[in-house]
Design brief:
about 15% strand, 3-stranded antiparallel sheet, about 110 residues, alpha+beta, single chain
Length: about 110
């Protein structure tokens, strides 16, 4: 990879959302690229970026729940406007989203390198 490409794609100021916006903008001008991008890739990348940002900027707490003699700890991500319970359902949905996003990115790479 050329030095300028490496600087552009791997530099700190270019986070995931900015890289996705750059790809989306380029795809808007290059039909061949646009045709090869999976339909919901940008939506998936947006969701992944949102989740990453929440974990990077907000605390996770472990809150005791239940009767004193049978307490369990419940993991919670406390964001500005919401509290996310990090239970099996949340983690299963997150796993599905990450798997879908990876699959879409792999498909894009295969499509571009044929």
């Amino acid at each position: 990879m050329a030095e300028t490409e490496s600087q552009l794609l791997k530099s700190a100021p270019f986070g995931l959302s900015r890289k996705a916006r750059i790809l989306k903008e380029i795809a808007g001008h290059v039909q061949l690229l646009s045709d090869r991008i999976p339909n919901d890739l940008f939506e998936c990348l947006g969701k992944v970026n949102d989740i990453r940002s929440k974990f990077a900027h907000y605390p996770v707490s472990f809150v005791p729940i239940g009767a004193v003699d049978r307490q369990a700890l419940q993991a919670r991500l406390s964001c500005k406007n919401e509290e996310i319970i990090l239970d099996e359902s949340y983690l299963s949905n997150l796993s599905a989203l990450l798997s879908k996003t990876k699959s879409d990115l792999d498909q894009l790479i295969r499509n571009l390198t044929k």
